[in-house]
Amino acid sequence: MFNAEVSGDIKCEALYSNKDDTVYLSDNWRTNDLRDRSIVLHELVHHLQYLNHVKAGCESRLEFQAFKLRAQWLSKQGVE
């Protein structure tokens, strides 16, 4: 789960908690918006990483995989 001090410049769209297997979404999240749905995809990648005990040298590698899959899905939906 995202664990850092949040400044006013950072917008948190969603969080995944492996403690309770929950994805927390922003109050502004919209079901019919493809970009918002891709946020859920990103967090579900983190859930699968956790379930499959994916090890990475640093957190950014786990984020890279989630962002890459999110971008691929958006591209297939016709969103740049």
Furnish the topology, listing elements before pairings.
Layout lengths: L13 E4 L4 E4 L8 H18 L7 H18 L4
Antiparallel strand pairs: 1-2
Helix pairs in contact: 1-2
Explained architecture:
- With 80 residues, the chain is mainly α.
- It contains two helices and two strands, in the order ββαα.
- The chain is globular, with a radius of gyration of 13 Å.
Mean pLDDT: 87
**Percentage of residues in DSSP E strands:** 5-15%
- Report the sheet with the most strands, covering strand number, pairing sense and barrel closure: 2 strands, antiparallel
Instruction: Sum up the overall morphology in one term.
Output: globular
What is the overall number of helices? Answer: 2
Side-by-side strand order of the widest sheet: 1-2
Low-confidence stretches: none
CA gyration radius, whole angstroms: 13 Å
Class by alpha and beta content = mainly alpha
DSSP summary, beta strand count:
2
Separation of the first and last Cα atoms: 27 Å
- Multimerization state: single chain
Helix proportion: 40-55%
Question: Strand-and-helix sequence, N→C?
Answer: EEHH
Q: Could you list some keywords that capture this structure?
A:
80 residues; mainly alpha; two-stranded antiparallel sheet
